[in-house]
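Researcher: Quick sanity check before group meeting.
Model: Go ahead. Protein one:
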Amino acid sequence: MHIVTKILVVFAAILAALLSALTVAYTHNASQIVRDRQRLSQMVAARDADLRARDAQFAAAQRQFDQERQNLASQIASLTQEQASLRNENTKLVADAKSAQIQAASLQSQIEQMTATEKTMALLIESYRNELTSLREGQLRSAEREQELADRINDLTGQLQVAQDNNRALQEQLAELQASLSSGAVASTATGRGGAAGSSNVVQARVLSVSPDRASGQLLAEIDAGSNDRVRKGMTLNIVRDGRFLGRMIVTRVDLQRAVGRIDTLNNRNVRVQPGDIVLSSLR
């Protein structure tokens, strides 16, 4: 039974007792009873109003409690869902961390392999570099040896040419002497330039200067012999130094005691004609 009902029952019993007392007293004082009855009725009405107000407050409190309980249940459900989401995220993060550790280990292994490969490549490159350096040094030595041999061959060729020219000049002198002896007249002359002796058919001179031609760019040499020494334009003279053949000089201009000619080193770029070199040839 509801507490309010119990209270009402108690009040009803009390009222019944009061009514009984009032009924007894009613006969004694009817007006007093009527007033008391009215007062009691007012008290009961006030009590009922108070009970109804309390019931309304209780119902409002009950509704508020139910609302708060629903809110708490909703919050609990939301927190439970959030907890589940956090657990899933935590599981995913743990899996990602393990995967990252595996990838890091794999990368470390690859780095170690690449380091070892790099060291091997460095050793191979160093070996190839040393081998290439050795080959280049061998090639340079071979090239230098070939150049030395070529220079030696050129020197020997020049010396041979000079010897052949000298031999030809001597043969011409011998033929002239024989012709002079057969006719009964022998002539001998001395060419004092450069301290050398020879016949009138041999020209011997020294290079005075070497300069390039402004028009053609070719090297020109000036010698201390001219038309007085039987040098003529177009003559080919041999240039020697210490018995080594250097090249040829083709006479392009002749004065009485000077002559200028174009230098031809026979495509030997290592030859440099300079003042003081000897010019030697025979007249044609």
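Researcher: Fine. The other one?
Model: Protein two, sequence then structure:
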Amino acid sequence: MHDRFKLTYFEECEDRIIEAEEGLSRMQEGDTSSDTINQVFRAIHSIKGGAGAFAFDQIVNFSHQFETALDFVREERLEPDRNLCDLFLRANDIVASMIEMEKAGEQIEQDYGSEIRIELEKIVQNITGAAPKETSQTHAESQNENTGEQTWAISFRPHENILKTGNEPLFIIQALQDLGELTLSAEVDNLPSLSTLTPENCYIGWKIILKTSAPEDEIREVFDFVDDLCELNIEAQNVPLGNEPERRAPTEPEQVLKKIKRKEDRDAVENAVIGKSSIRVDLERIDQLVNLVGEMVIAQSMLQEQVRWLPAEAGGKVTEGVENLTRHMRDLQESVMAVRAQQIKSVFTRMPRIIREVSNAC
């Protein structure tokens, strides 16, 4: 069962890598719209979240730096010029290679992709002023080494319709886990009986204890996408002596701008979910369906040939029925063959990038 989930994750990663490369290629050509940037960010964020579920630490650590730099682009704190987009494309290649290694069961070296990772860390350091982390450390470990850790009590109760908006509460919990030491318990008091349960609804909430050195603003950023899709309460349990941060209340314009940004991000997620209504089916089942339709077409052709020998007065209605059957069988065959067709979009997506890299090398 666990292997089946891993296989599904690897298949999803293939799509996410392609989405990220498409978005980065458009950014490289000058398309810096929020939709394009959000597409790349969501792809890397999804890969990181799934990697955390399967304890692929190397992918999580590298993707975290990549995701942080992308988040600065989303916040317009970082200009996505051509050089930065080139770096992001190379980082995307590293993530893709790591996924292939995990899929093949190969060991990923600790310093794999370290050159790109260091460049990403420098970008983050230039904006935040924080010292870069060691490559071999996980994000949570490096957080715990800092002084001034604080314990936060978080009550997170998603609304029932949160899953329908394309948001996954477990990914949010995984993002919190990246910030530090996490303890949580589920609240199931709203869970209905099995006969009235709707699979698309979320009935579970969580009480979370988070020990971290991250500031409150960084914790709240984890919930940006679901700000008005849940009941959220975050309270500090203890403040280290002498380290209590001085906070100022955000001005009204700042609050309005933050809500607008959250709504834009959430709308982008919802549009992406609505626009991609597809399911995954084993190729073996598709092949079986194609073969069965082929047999039906042969049987229909034989029936049509036999009807031709019937007398005109006896075969009128039968001939009309066979003609209708022939027309429907043709439509069915075309539809099934379209299902079996494989997308070649990913092949041509890489061509502009290959041409640019070759031209730069010449």
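Researcher: One line on it for the slide.
Model: Residues 132-147, 239-276 have pLDDT under 50 and may be disordered.
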